[in-house]
Specification:
Trna Endonuclease, Chain: A, domain 1, five-stranded mixed β-sheet, 5 strands, alpha+beta, single chain, 121 residues, 27% helix
Length: 121
């Protein structure tokens, strides 16, 4: 399995995880030019821009460590662009979440959802 396929499978796992917890998926791989947000999800009064990171093992550290300040800035730019011209229901909280997916050959897939992982600057 190559990196692209692993990423695609990880995003699908994250989407299924969110749906099982009552989230509606508003967008996947939402782009602004070459910049991208993996998932946009809505539940209750929360709109979440979600970055998904997937790994097969722990050799290179935790997947969430790969969400650098530069990546967060890119996601915020895409979020601002996506929000323009889209009226949100009053009281909607916009936040940035992160989901890590560990694919293990020896056990079940591990999904970790970190709500409100960082704030938009």
């Amino acid at each position: 399995m190559d990196r692209v396929e692993l990423g695609r499978l990880g995003e699908e796992e994250a989407v299924q995880y969110l749906k099982a917890r009552g989230w509606s998926i508003l967008g996947r791989n939402v782009r602004q030019g070459r910049k991208e947000v993996d998932v946009i999800a809505f539940r209750g009064h929360v709109l979440a821009f979600v970055e998904v990171k997937c790994r097969r093992g722990r050799r290179y550290g935790h997947p969430l460590e790969a969400i650098t300040w530069a990546k967060r800035r890119v996601i915020a730019q895409v979020a601002r662009s996506w929000l323009q011209g889209r009226p949100l229901p009053p009281g909607t909280l916009v936040r940035f979440d992160a989901i890590s997916v560990f694919w293990s050959e020896r056990g079940p897939t591990e999904v970790l959802h970190l709500p409100d992982a960082w704030r938009m600057e």
